[in-house]
Fold each of these.
Amino acid sequence: MPMYRNGGISPWQLVLLGLPLVGLGVGVPAVMLPSALADERAYAAAAPCPGGAAQADTTADCLLTQRAAVTGKNITGSGDNKKYFLVLGFPDGTQQRAQLGKNSQKKVETGEPVTVVSWRHEVREITTRDDERLTTRAYPVGSYIPLMLVAVMATPLGASLLWMAHWLRQLRRTGRSLASTGRWHTSVPFVTAMLYGFAAMVAIAVAPSATVAAAAAGGVAVGAVPLSALAWRGQRNKAGPRAARLLAATGVCAPVAEAVIPARVSGDVPYSRTDCDHLVLGPAGLAVTPDAQGMSWRVPLPVSLTFVRLHRGDAVGRIDGVSRPLLVECRDGDREVLIAADRDQVPWILGALWPQPQGALPYVPPRT
């Protein structure tokens, strides 16, 4: 059974994660932000209601200020979904609930007289007897902030996941893998999206108005794009020299006798098998086998297998008997083949390949 990068997340799974995030980041603000901004402008422009008039008795979009008393406190929900309410009693005998934050509810005691400001039949502000102004969850000023926070975090994060899906799809179509091309192709956009989201959230939270918040988020984006491009270019330029240094430090040693080592061969090739976790190496070349003694059947690796470069084995999964993995990238025609083995065994693998890698020094065994 050929084994071809069966582990890890699939492109379609990334699409299923990314699309809802992009839809959330774009759709929710697009639908709710205009009304939130309109309510904020209307509240800021509203005049006080005529003295002695109840809001229900006037057609004016005004701010109604009334005296009230806290007749009770309610808490609904549980865990992180708790909601905190004050029950307010008015002189005419009516009552109304107002939702506040947890800390705000603690600042008011039952029976305490308060002054409330209502707008469009909802309590928006509460002033305590100590003249501390508390805003309720219905307070419209700044209601754009959560919507913009959703936009700057969900949209770039979802877009980075969609880029990952596209990149993984391209690799699978061309027979490549992240282990050989470099995980920076996906990590740089993802980390950029996360850092931009956090920086833009801070900028929006401290901005005094929606216009300034939008400009601040755009400014952060203008700075994030070139920084991401520099990081991308830096990782790309480091990849070749890093592989060359690793090859020079590992060395090459042609095997003079047959040996069996723990190793894994993966690729879209017939000798990449899930039931073979050992590699036979010797003067005659390489072969995969399921037997740690090499006494069972073997599937030889072709002489056309050509070394490409050496990679660190950070992304290699667990292999029994391999504690310090390295990844040998090879090509069999137009197909990629990856050999994962312990660092101490890689020089003999490189020595068994033909032609042997260029730029590698002779392997010197460590002194014991």
Amino acid sequence: MAGGDSFDADPGRLAALRAEMEGIAKRLPALRSDFLRGQYFYEDYTGSGSEEISGNLKPRWKETTGYVDSVLEALAGAITAVVGAQTQTLNEIERPNQKAQDDIDSLLSAQGDDLDTDGGRR
């Protein structure tokens, strides 16, 4: 927000953020897969000597790793949704800009070289 009543959208910054978030979204499935694969190394970390300790810790450990897996999956979905929204925002910014540029170009070509093209700067 620039002055409170307006929104200044910088297409370049939005596109850079979108590209960065796309990269994160692409890496999350591998991160999730690595996490799930890695958890198997520690599945029996509670040991088998004390059934009471093992019986209490193992279910909590499985529940926690399940939560982490769910969060990673939800995070990937959320980032994908944000990237989609950013793409839509960029299109909404760039479409009118492109139309305005096309209109200017057609006006310039219709007027030839007689049109003042210095933007009013003298």
